[in-house]
Design goal:
- The chain folds into 2 domains: 3-221, Vaccinia Virus protein VP39 (Rossmann fold, 3-Layer(aba) Sandwich); 228-314.
- The chain contains 10 helices and 11 strands.
- The chain has helices at 3-6, 82-95, 104-113, 134-141, 200-208, 228-232, 247-268, 273-286, 303-314, 324-333; strands at residues 18-31, 47-58, 64-68, 71-72, 124-128, 145-150, 168-172, 185-191, 211-222, 336-341, 349-356.
- Strands 7-6-5-8-9-11-10 form a 7-stranded mixed β-sheet, with helices on both faces. The protein has a 4-stranded antiparallel β-sheet with strand order 1-2-3-4, with no helix packed on it.
- The structure holds zinc ion (ZN).
- Zinc ion binds at residues 11, 13-14, 16, 58, 60-61, 63.
């Protein structure tokens, strides 16, 4: 953990400032190469002290949080509810099996955040729910200074990337109790994550509060088919517009798929992780069969990605779906004006980019 991060952190329990407790702290001097597009303030040292092990103490009533293996941990283990613990474990387990960072990550990131490449250099960015950090690495590559934030141990896959990266920070904690000061990020993005918390709207509000006035918030969540009126006005991707004349049928199929999926999930969220992973193997195989693949939860061309994406759909205890009308209300409610809406395929993926006024 770099000292610089401390200025952005706040106690998740009482919002007070945090300071490093000197007792038992282990530090390393990381000699960091200054890369092109660096955003560290003028006068900052070219090497920065890195806290490897230690403790953060809040200036309020003295809440304490460990820094282990370079990462400040804001997880009161003993009080984690079982569903939150299950969410944490399923994503931690899953991402360790993900076949690395794919070439397509950057393309997906550019489309889904809806922020052009020139919008990233020099920005202080929150990756809210970074998982194993696929998109963290893209945002870094684009020249941003990134705080990668996640509940699960998948985040720890980024630790080896800390060396030589003065623009990368890792924080482990809960999106419903984010350990940051309000209004500090130029950009916050959350790609397909908020619906896996126990309360999507609340996770949205808490993330939105971290964005500076004039800053950007990009979010997408799983879509709910909702009424036909809502469904038929969803923004379709250009390669799917041929479906327009068949929309009533498409709407019925999406609803049927949702009901089947919710029925399956009554069982799958209760299965031991290893058993569920085995169950997803035949689903991944079916994902290569024309037409049949739309009955599974991933039609990705890579078998291992399909396997993990099926698991990703069936494992998490929380998986809420939302309409674009709901998401827009959340943006409006937090004082954001919506700049862009994400176009998607048959199954709605509700995404928006907003600017805080
Ligand atoms: Zn506190």
């Amino acid at each position: 953990m770099k000292r610089r991060l401390l200025a952005w952190l706040a106690c998740p329990e009482c919002s007070a400032d945090l300071r490093c407790s000197s007792a038992g702290a282990a530090r390393e001097e990381l000699h960091l190469a200054r890369g092109a597009g660096s955003v560290i303030a003028p006068g900052a040292a070219s090497s920065e002290e890195e806290l490897r092990e230690g403790e953060l103490v809040c200036a309020g009533v003295g809440h304490r949080f460990a820094v282990r293996d370079h990462v400040p941990r804001f997880l009161p283990q003993a009080t984690l509810k079982s569903a939150v613990r299950q969410t944490r474990e399923s994503f931690g387990w899953e991402w360790q099996r993900y076949p690395g960072s794919l070439d397509e990550d950057r393309d997906i990131f550019m489309v889904e955040t809806q922020i052009p490449a020139e919008g990233w250099p020099g920005r202080i960015v929150l990756d809210a729910g970074c998982g194993m950090g696929r998109y963290t690495l893209v945002a870094l590559q684009l020249g941003a200074e990134v705080v990668a934030f996640d509940l699960s141990d998948a985040l720890l896959r980024l630790i080896p990337r800390l060396g030589g990266k003065e623009r990368l920070h890792l924080v482990q904690g809960d999106l419903l109790r984010p350990p940051f000061k309000p209004g500090i990020f130029d950009i916050a993005y959350s790609q397909g994550v908020l619906h896996h918390t126990s309360d999507t709207a609340s996770a949205f509000r808490r993330t939105a509060a971290l964005v500076k006035p004039g800053g950007l918030l990009s979010v997408w969540v799983y879509g709910f088919p909702g009424s036909y009126r809502s469904f038929s006005s969803n923004p379709l991707r250009s390669d799917r517009t041929w479906l327009r004349p068949f929309l009533p049928l498409v709407w019925a199929v999406v609803w049927a798929r949702l009901l089947v999926s919710d029925f399956l999930r009554l069982l799958t969220v209760r299965l031991p992780i290893h058993l569920l992973y085995a169950f997803c193997f035949p689903l991944a195989a079916l994902g290569a069969v024309p037409f049949v693949k739309y009955l599974t939860f991933s039609a990705h061309p890579n078998f291992r990605v399909r396997w993990i994406e099926n698991f990703d759909w069936l494992a998490p205890p929380f998986q809420y779906k939302h309409t674009k009308e709901e998401l827009r209300r959340w943006f409006d409610g937090e004082g954001f004006s919506v700049l862009r809406q994400l176009a998607h395929g048959v199954v709605p993926k509700v995404g928006m980019l907003g600017r805080r006024s």
